[in-house]
Design goal:
This protein has 264 residues and is of the alpha/beta class. It contains twelve helices and eight strands.
């Protein structure tokens, strides 16, 4: 593994690196973080003995966990669970937890790539359609001077492909692994196989490679700020309507069960 340059501070200057406070939304664990704290925590984990993983929790994930105990346990055991979804932030804030903000997977991924370049760490992009991960890697290198993309691969989360993929990733010495298989496949893949890849930090990033590569346009900034990115995606990808139905059940359950239990 390439490792982090020893002469470079492993922590972003001025960021809070303490373990975040955790809470639960409908019984699903989430960490109460703002973006800078989430990024700092990732960098701290990167500098520690691994493997460590990050889950980006949105309302769909929360609803999935209601009937998938394995996924709920996976989230509970993650090293960091960020509130990726306005609905999750809303559920936390309505309980009086103010120091939280939406931490999207794509934004955290970009910020981690900036830190990787600063620290001399390398990244590997796994998943998406053929050619998309490679293109996303090139775009990131164009945008972030000094970023080392150790490699990329399309592939699938099928277990029969895992051994070859893990060997390939380990051979590159990648420090950070971004996996775009979609939820929950990407998160279960990380849980099962990350240790074999040698990567110290791994995160499921959903459709981030599609957006970074330019294959799929991201919502305008003003829609993101208005927490309407989901609507933009739905208009461009109508097949998502079935997934959006979960939001109705999520909102109803949160209103019925407003209390968020904090955890030590």
């Amino acid at each position: 593994m390439a490792g982090i340059r020893s002469e470079t501070s492993p922590e972003p200057i001025g960021l809070n690196t303490a373990p975040p406070r955790s809470a639960s939304v409908l019984g699903v664990r989430v960490d109460c973080v703002e973006f800078t704290q989430a990024l700092a925590r990732c960098v701290t984990l990167l500098g520690a003995d691994g493997p460590h993983n990050v889950v980006t929790l949105n309302p769909e994930f929360v609803m999935l966990a209601q009937h998938d105990s394995g996924f709920r346990a996976l989230v509970a055991a993650a090293d960091l669970v960020v509130p990726d979804g306005a609905g999750v932030v809303w559920a936390l804030r309505r309980q009086g937890l103010e120091n939280v903000e939406r931490v999207t997977g794509i934004d955290l991924m970009r910020a981690l790539c900036v830190e990787a370049a600063r620290l001399g760490a390398s990244v590997f992009l796994l998943g998406a359609a053929p050619g998309v991960a490679a293109r996303a890697g090139r775009v990131l290198q164009e945008q972030i001077p000094g970023l080392v993309v150790a490699g990329s691969a399309a592939s699938t989360p099928a277990p029969e492909h895992a051994a070859a993929l893990c060997e390939r990733i380990r051979a590159t010495g990648a420090d950070i692994l971004f996996v775009a298989f979609g939820c929950p496949a990407q998160d279960f893949w990380i849980e099962r196989f990350q240790a074999e890849t040698g990567a110290r930090l791994a995160m499921g990033v959903g459709g981030s490679f599609d957006y970074i590569s330019g294959k799929v346009p991201r919502a305008p900034r003003w829609l993101q700020s208005a927490n309407l990115e989901w609507l933009y995606r739905l208009l461009r990808q109508p097949w998502r309507w079935r997934r959006q139905l979960a939001l109705i059940g999520y909102l109803w359950q949160v209103v019925r069960q407003p209390q968020v239990d904090t955890q030590d």
